[in-house]
Design goal:
The complex is a heterodimer.
Chain A (H helix, E strand, L loop, with lengths): L17 H13 L4 E17 L2 E19 L2 E7 L4 H16 L27 H5 L2 H18 L3 E20 L4 E19 L2 E4 L2 E5 L8 H13 L10 E7 L1 H15 L1 H5 L20 E4 L20 E6 L2 E2 L6 H7 L7 E2 L7 E2 L4 E3 L6 H6 L3 E9 L9 E12 L2 E14 H6 L1 E4 L9 E2 L3 E9 L1
Parallel strand pairs in A: 8-15, 14-19
Antiparallel strand pairs in A: 1-2, 1-4, 2-3, 4-5, 5-6, 5-7, 8-20, 9-10, 9-14, 10-11, 12-13, 15-16, 16-17, 17-20, 18-20
Helix pairs in contact in A: 4-5
Chain B lengths: L4 H10 L3 H11 L6 E17 L2 E19 L2 E7 L4 H12 L14 E2 L18 H18 L3 E19 L3 E20 L2 E11 L4 H5 L3 H15 L7 E8 L6 H8 L4 H5 L20 E4 L20 E6 L2 E2 L6 H7 L7 E2 L8 E2 L3 E4 L6 H6 L3 E13 L5 E13 L2 E6 L2 E6 H4 L3 E4 L4 E2 L5 E4 L2 E4 L1 E4 L2 E9 L4
Parallel strand pairs in B: 4-6, 8-15, 14-23
Antiparallel strand pairs in B: 1-2, 1-5, 2-3, 5-6, 6-7, 8-24, 9-10, 9-14, 10-11, 12-13, 15-16, 16-17, 16-18, 18-24, 19-24, 20-23, 21-22
Helix pairs in contact in B: 2-3, 4-6
Chain lengths: 460, 479
């Protein structure tokens, strides 16, 4: 096997430090910016993919970069680079300032008020040294064990379309010209496997995975493999059904995609542009009273948690929809100013560009019913386990996607279904959520329990 | 000097010599392996974006790095560094080389510059070299045109994104190739609002072109007008029908059907592993005989075109499906060696941070015998879909979906009412068998396509003549 090698928590060298970030922001101001914000990012990544008991690819990397956003009397520009040499950084600062001069003044653009900034940083326990210390050989084994468990589940599992182990350790520094500077580090790792099953000359594939910040929170590779096999095998023999309008149950792995659509509709970026079907409805009933949606960036050890957002505001818990009433939009400083509201600490950004709006941990509050009880309540309907296509229009709510899953007959999963679409409108879908499952699991930063929607159109 | 601008860029800027490259390749293979290559990249990306009638953001990002790959059998080791310096590349080469452990030893042939075979994007002034104010003027032009189209256009977002990428690929079999790749696109999004009825329209275009393209060939004002026209047209749209029906796809961007229905399934990696619904079907009928589908990376100035792929291989024109019969998969170096089939110049990657995979370039269907008018006239009741958003495919089951954003009913041979956006779904190996007419009006898309696979996004092109499909599922709400 490969020699034991480890990757360590990224150590800050001289150029990757809070001081460098502070100096860079200061230099931009010295050269004429009215305000400046700097982000530094450092990542160490490892990835192994396996197939049929062998390593297929092994990849390791370390990269770092800086981003600078400058404001010049309401005019904004930004630059990023990965060359930390003095000349390169200096010429990018100059370019940022020159670019800002030719943009238009925007009254709402600017840094947050100093009083809003995170004063002390919560320890959210985002870093796991066990991931950093894991030897390559052990990582390969985790991936192989997941695949083996899926292979052993049935002789009908004949092939794999991927699977492996990935890990990442990263550090982020944020500084601005008003004196804010802070940093945090985090880790994450994932195990996945993608079995292919064959029956009567038709192949089906599905997958399962786990992804966490802490190695000890991961499901065992055996249970990931077994679940991947179960999901794949149940698709064998899938057929279509006739066109009809029926209740639809979204399992958590597809319900989370619906929650992603809701996120786009409540993001300040869609709201201030009136590009959302939820525009102007704060305080109104927009969904079934069974639906409560919460964003919380402060939950220890979770993937969407972080001590401060991409503008340095402390993250927080925001109730987005409470018992069906639209309570709050998710906002950064810019979109809050546009709407006359306050930021919810949801700024998000890459190295380059103005901050956008992102989630912390966005989830649907679990309800009282188990997934089995939800399925049992449906006489005739579709249990959706996979959605493909991009037919969601958040501007007006139109919704049409291709689906696979299981047909529900008299409260039981009867046979696998493929080759259909599910269609409706998000407004009506949210209002007709009849049941919310108790099966919430933070396997990502946007997560949902099982949901039952009263009626959607199935087309085949 | 080599007369290859890509190679010269790296030797001038970083002082790399052919001797350094040979040494680095030897380090990559010091533990064994069949093959190694080094992919050098330097890229500048720029963006200008307008929203609410003002230029809100101007951006520039600069990145550089080297990806080192070592392969042995069907295994690949990969590592990259964002410092283009001998020691850091050597460290990446050792990391990538760990995959080989004690495999067979391969010597390194000293690198020699590979002759250039294409010159597909000879631009005078790349968009990246044009002044920011010149780009701002173009973006503002698109906003004005959209707002002038109809007073119900309430929101216009317009952006111009451009890049220039220098690449150099050196491989242990002695190949040394380089290229300078310009790329630019404008994109306009409009929202029409008629008393709370809100609808979207999108348009844009670009390619591997210079700034003059937007001043002479594709006016941003026309993109603005087109996006506004779509948004306004959708205000009147009725609910889309549900169920299987006859569908006519318009020319150009609806070629995304091919990209999803057959394109991904014909990438060699899935077929070598036997996970594609098209695996083992070479020589079999997979489409009606009206269908000939090609992937062509050699069309001048197109978004999906390249002089060389990201493994240094000249791109080609590959006939994938000929008169309905499956002929060929799209290959990269690894899969061509393992499958013992010729390379097709389809080895592509998003950046030095990724290993190459078999990917599409410009994928389209050739024109057929029918006129657009006779195709539409032949439909009693069906859907005419002309604009699409994105698409997606499960290559194993063959299930694909792509979403129409502008479509109309055809009734008694005439285009009648606009219908709301709906997903069209089908199954790859079956869908093209239902193609019953192919128009004489092949068009390539305007140049905005992005294709994602394994987390890597790359620019691609698609194209289609007007075609008629006898049955495809329309995912509307009206039963």
């Amino acid at each position: 096997m490969t020699p034991r090698r480890t990757f360590k928590e990224p150590k800050m060298d001289l150029s990757f430090s809070k001081q460098f970030a502070v100096d860079l922001a200061r230099e931009a101001v010295v050269r004429g910016a009215t305000a400046a914000e700097v982000m530094l990012r450092h990542r160490v990544e490892f990835s192994v993919s396996v197939r049929l008991g062998e390593v297929e690819t092994l990849k390791e990397s370390m990269d770092r970069g800086f981003g600078l956003r400058v404001l010049l009397d309401g005019k904004q520009a930004s630059v990023s680079g990965s060359d930390f040499s003095k000349d390169s950084v200096s010429s990018l600062i100059q370019e940022a300032i020159e670019m800002a001069r030719v943009t238009s003044p925007d009254d709402s653009a600017g840094l947050p008020e100093p009083a809003e900034m995170a004063a002390s940083l919560a320890d959210l326990d985002l870093y796991d040294p066990d991931i950093s210390d894991l030897a390559t050989e052990e990582k390969i084994n985790l991936a192989l064990r997941a695949e083996m468990a899926a292979r052993e589940a049935s002789p009908k599992i004949v092939n794999f379309d991927g699977g492996g182990f990935d890990s990442r350790a990263g550090a982020m520094v944020l500084a601005n010209s008003q004196g804010f500077v802070a940093e945090y580090s985090g880790t994450s790792c994932s195990i996945s496997t993608v079995p292919v099953a064959l029956d009567n000359e038709r192949m089906q594939r599905d997958y399962w995975y786990d992804c966490r910040r802490k190695l000890r929170d991961m499901d065992s590779p055996e249970s990931i493999g077994a679940e991947a096999a179960r999901r794949t095998l149940r698709k064998l023999g899938a057929r279509t059904v006739k066109n009809q309008s029926v209740p639809v149950v979204f399992e958590p792995n597809v319900a989370k995609e619906l929650l992603g659509d809701i996120f786009h509709a409540v993001s300040g970026e869609s709201i201030f542009r009136k590009a959302s079907f939820l525009v102007g409805q704060r305080g109104e009933q927009v969904a079934s009273p069974r639906l409560t949606v919460i964003d919380d960036g402060t939950l220890p050890t979770l993937l969407g948690s972080r001590p401060f957002d991409a503008e340095g505001l402390p993250t927080r818990r925001t109730v987005v929809i409470e018992d069906g009433v639209l309570a709050n939009y998710l906002l950064n400083t810019y979109t809050a100013k546009k709407l006359g509201l306050r930021s919810t600490g949801n700024a998000s950004r890459g190295l380059v560009g103005a901050p956008g709006v992102g989630v912390g941990n966005l989830f649907i509050q679990p309800g009282p019913d188990s997934p089995e009880q939800i399925i049992a309540s449906v006489r005739n309907g579709l249990y959706v386990t996979e959605l493909i296509g991009f037919g969601v229009n958040v501007v007006n709510g139109d919704y049409s996607r291709s689906a696979s899953g299981m047909w529900i007959q008299n409260g039981e999963l009867a046979f696998p279904v493929q080759g259909v679409t599910v269609a409706g409108n998000l407004k009506e879908m949210l209002n007709s959520i009849e049941m919310v499952g108790d099966d919430l699991d933070f396997r990502g930063s946007i997560v949902s329990p099982t949901l039952m929607i009263g009626r959607m159109t199935i087309s085949a | 000097m080599t007369n290859n601008k890509g190679i010269d860029f790296f030797s001038d800027r970083y002082g790399l010599t052919p001797g350094d490259i040979d040494k680095l390749l030897s380090i990559a293979l010091e533990k064994g392996g069949d093959f190694a290559d080094l992919y050098f990249e330097y890229r500048i990306r720029n963006g200008v974006s307008l929203d609410e009638q003002i230029i809100k953001s101007v951006t520039k990002s600069e990145s550089q790095g080297v990806g080192v790959r070592v392969t042995i059998g069907d295994k690949t080791g990969y590592a990259y560094t964002d410092l283009i310096a001998f020691d850091s590349i050597a460290a990446a080469a050792r990391t990538a080389g760990h995959i080989a452990r004690s495999g067979g030893l391969t010597g390194v042939t000293g690198v020699n510059v590979s002759p250039s075979s294409h010159n597909l994007y000879p631009v005078e002034t790349p968009v990246s070299a044009a002044s920011v104010s010149r780009k701002i003027a173009l973006v503002i032009e698109s906003d004005r045109a959209a707002r002038d189209y109809d007073r119900r256009i309430r929101e216009v977002q317009s952006s111009m994104a451009d890049e220039i990428k220098y690449v150099m690929i050196a491989s242990s079999d002695g190949g040394l190739a380089g290229d300078v790749q310009p790329l630019a696109r404008i994109g306009v999004l409009c929202i029409a609002d008629d008393d709370g009825n809100r609808q979207l329209g999108r348009s844009g275009g670009g390619g591997r072109i210079g700034i003059d393209f937007f001043e002479e060939q594709l006016r941003p004002g026309d993109c603005g007008t087109e996006a506004a026209r779509q948004a306004i047209g959708q205000l009147e749209a009725i609910d889309a029908p549900a169920g299987k029906m006859e569908v006519v796809l318009g020319p150009g961007w609806p070629g995304i059907l091919l990209h999803e229905a057959v394109g991904h399934g014909l990438e060699a990696d899935f077929n070598r592993k036997g996970t594609s619904a098209f695996s083992g079907m070479i020589g079999e009928r997979v489409a009606s005989e009206l269908c000939t589908v090609v992937d062509d990376g050699t069309i001048p100035s197109r978004r999906g075109s390249l002089n060389i792929d990201d493994e240094g291989e000249p791109t080609t024109r590959t006939v994938l499906i000929e008169n309905g019969v499956l002929r060929c998969y799209m290959n990269d170096r690894l899969n061509s060696r393992l499958m013992k089939t010729p390379r097709t110049g389809n080895g592509r990657r998003e950046s030095y941070k990724y290993m190459p995979l078999p990917r599409m370039t410009n994928t389209f269907m050739l024109s057929g015998p029918h006129s657009r008018e006779e195709i539409i006239r032949s439909v009693k009741r069906g859907l005419y879909a002309v604009q699409f958003g994105g698409g997606q495919v499960d290559i194993t089951s063959g299930e694909f979906a792509f979403s129409a954003s502008e479509a109309f009913l055809i009734e008694e041979g005439k285009i009648t009412t606009a219908v709301k956006g709906a997903t069209l779904r089908g199954n790859g190996p079956v869908a093209l068998k239902h193609v019953t007419a192919v128009g004489d009006d092949l068009q390539l898309d305007k140049g905005v396509g992005v294709c994602g696979k394994d987390g890597q996004n790359i620019p691609v092109g698609v194209g289609l003549p007007t075609i008629k499909i006898s049955e495809i599922t329309v995912g509307g709400t009206k039963l």
